[in-house]
Structures are given as C-alpha cells and as structure tokens.
Amino acid sequence: MKLQIKTMLILLTAFLTIIVLFSGFVYLSVSNYSYEDFYKLLEIRAVTAAKAELDQEGGSEEMIALRNQFFEKLPQEKDRYYRITPGESFTDEAKALDVPVSFFNAVLKGGSGEYSKNSMFYKGIRYKSKLGEYVVVASAQNYFELHHSAYLRRTLILAIGAAFLFSALIALYFSRYVFRPLRKITDRVKEISSENLHLRLENNMNNDELSDLTRTFNNMLDRIETSFETQNNFISNASHELRTPLTAIIGEADVTLSKIRTTDEYIETIKVILDEAETLDRKTKALLFLAQTGFNGKNQKFDKLRIDQLLWDVKETIEKINTNSRIHIDTSLLPENPLKLKIKGNEQLLHLALSNIISNACKYSNNRQVNVSIGASDQNVFIIVKDHGIGIPEKELKYIYDPFFRASNTLKYEGYGIGLPLTRNIIRLHNGEIIVTSMVGEGTTVQINLPIGQFEL
Questions:
Q1: Paired sense of beta strands 327-330 and 370-376, if any
Q2: Which position has the higher pLDDT, 41 or 394?
Q3: Contact (CB, 8 A) for 159 and 151
Q4: How many Å is the Cα radius of gyration of the chain?
Q5: Which stretch of DSSP H or E encloses residue 288?
Q6: 79 φ, ψ to 5°?
Q7: Is 400 contained in some domain?
Q8: Cβ neighbours for 221, distance < 8 A, ≥ 6 positions apart
Q9: Domain boundary among 264, 292, 320
C-alpha cells in the first residue's frame, strides 16, 4: 500500500472515530437528560393528580379543568391511586401494572420510585392526603423515545455520513498536498545519475522538514559530485604522474640496451634510472599516504597536544631543512587560559600538515618572511599562516585540493601537488577545517581551525 493511501486512511479513520464518539456522547447525554426530565414531568402530574383527586374529597372540577388546560395530554397517560394499608403488600397491583414489586417497595421506603419498560415510564410517589396515605402512580409513553429520539438518531446518522464524505475529501486533498513535494523530489531524484550530478533539487527555502530534506540531499549531491570529480582527477593525474618516470626508466633502459655502451655511459644511465625510480618512489609513497589519511582515523592514536609547542617544533624543523626560511610566530593572540591551546590529535600527522602549509608559504614567497598567528576561542584553536608570495589565480582556487594539481604560476617551483590534499585530509581527521584565500602577486592566507580538546580535570 502506498504511503499516501495509508496516510489518507489513517486520517479518515481518526476523523470518523472522533465524529462517531462525539455523536454517541451527544445521543446518550440527550437521552439521559430526556429520561430524567420525563420522570420529573410525571412526578409533577402525579402530585397534581393527587391534589385534585384526593385532597378535594372526590375531586375538584376547577382543579381538573386547570390541569387539562395547562398540561398537554401525554400518550397513554394514566394516573392510579393505591391506598396504603399496614401489613398489606402490593403484589397484585404490581402484576396488574406489569411492574416489579420492588417499584412499590421503593415508593413506600423512599417516598418515590421510577420504572420504565420499553417506551412506558412509571413514576410513583407516596402521598399523604385528607383521606389517608396513598401510592400515586403516574404513567405515560415517553414521547421523546417515540419521536425525538428517532429523529435525533436519523440526524446523527446523516451527519456522520456527511462528515465521512467531507472528511474523505479533506483527507484526499491533504494527502495529495502533503505528498506533492515528495513526488517532485522523487521525480527529480530519478533524473539524477552519474552523468548529470550537477542537477539539484528545488528548495522553497521554508524552514520545514521537507526543506531540511532537500538541503540535506543537495549537500549529499555536492559531496558525491566532488568525490566523483576528485576521483576522476586523481586517476587521471596519478596515471600521468606515475607514467612519466616509468616511461623515462623504460626509455632510458631501451636506449642503453640497443648497443654496447662504455662503462661511463652505463653508470650515467643507471643514475638516470635511479633518479627516476626515486621520483616514482616518492610519488607512490605520497599517494599511499594520501589514501591512508582518507579513512576515518579510528586507527590513529590521538593524544593530548599543545598546539603552540607543536608550532615551535614545526618552525625548528623547517629552518633546519631550509636555512633561508624566515618564519615569525605571532603570540599576541594567545589566550590567557592555556587549556584553550590543548587539542586531541596525532602529533606526527599534525606536524606533517603544518609543515606542508608553512614550508609552501616559505617556498612560494621566495623565502620572504612568513607570519604565523595562533589564537583560540571557546570552541576552537586557530592557526593563520600568511605569506607575501606569488599567490594562487582565483579561477584555480577550487582545484587546490585535487591530488597532483599545481597552479599555473608554480612551474619554476619544485613539488608534486600532494601537500594540500594531504593536509586537508589530516585536518578532517581531527574534525577541523582549512580555509585558503589568495590573490595573485599579493600572497596567500591559510587558516586552520581545530576543536579544543575536552579533558577531565
């Protein structure tokens, strides 16, 4: 069964159940009230009949005329008078009236009694008159039961039927209205495949569940599209980067083996092959390391680290490798609370990530001063690396995380295009983010945000 039909049936059943329960409550309430009201009416008639027939010693024509004038005649109305004699029961009288003896006993003990059978109602009272004590019984057929109750039942049944039809139309419209956006989403999703991942779902920008679903799905499509593009670029670039040194090795070996060479020529060939093999080894290791940092990091060991101490270690390492590097660490933004500088992370991976960023800043700024600032907020510790180097063309900024991609203005600088993708993977392992802004000729700014570690005191 489709969800739309199921929803319509649920709404219809719920609405119909409420209507039926409400109608039943109305019917029972009106019926109970009518019965009580009818018994009161019979009691008034019994008292009036007793006063007219018993207190006037044979009856009063004026009282009877007044009673007939103001009291509407009830169906099968009849008044009966039974003298109370001590020690005598009303068994015969009960049989004659076709009522239980308990009815008369209730009148004798409590002063009044009630009984109903089918549509006939009996009201008895104990009345003390001039002629003695009597049990006065007024009986009549309940006109409400005969006419009004039947009319009320027909009215409620018609109302329930009309409500059923009306609620069915409402449920049908409501189910279609609610599921219309879902049908649009389903139809749109069916159009999306690996060949047209650029398509997106339309979002009405309302703050409801369907808008959240649309935004979530569009975000998922963004990630999938990025993954597809990254995978395609990775395969294309990796095959090219690995093929180049392999082609050089194979070509050099073929040329050397084409004829007998001198010892010096063999040595020169081996050097070329060794150099290309080392290049291939470095690229392969970089690719493997990049692939490893693409996992979720559950196998990595995370320890308590102070990010400022790690930065000083990175500065020392880079300056040992490149003595011309000029790195300035700005401590003016350091927080007063040293706990805000502590994070949970893998020291080797973070050392590698920060080294990549800062060494790139030194390299592409031709060893001009690189400023590294460190600060913290209540949730994150941030590191900002700013250089005054060649910068990155604006149109190429979106490709900087593609493996082996290198900006068009970096041809004279050594590198493989692995550093930034590797750094981003490492930062993601630590639930952080990396933000890169750049302008050609003015330099590049890289901001790394890492969550502050939660440690027990």
A1: parallel
A2: 394
A3: no
A4: 49
A5: helix 263-292
A6: -115, 140
A7: yes
A8: 192, 197, 199, 200, 201
A9: 292
